[in-house]
Amino acid sequence: MMYGANPEQLAQLGRTLHDQMSMISQLISTVDKAIGSTMWQGPARQRFEQDWNGSFKHALHRLDEAFGSAGRDCISRSEELLRIMGG
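RESULT FIELD:
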């Protein structure tokens, strides 16, 4: 059994994860703007806003951080592999 990674594929994964971070930030911004500009009254809105500003947005921020960390790690490991391989 062989262990390891293809440096180019690992770097591409890192870039893909980094790109997803901007999509998550855009999603958060879009929903925030939509909530702020929508004429919606009542308990359903209050529940949604509480969930959005509480657990939903928090989960997306955690996902954003995880993608950033994993993306940086993939790129760093790819660079290290290339250095070790002499490439």
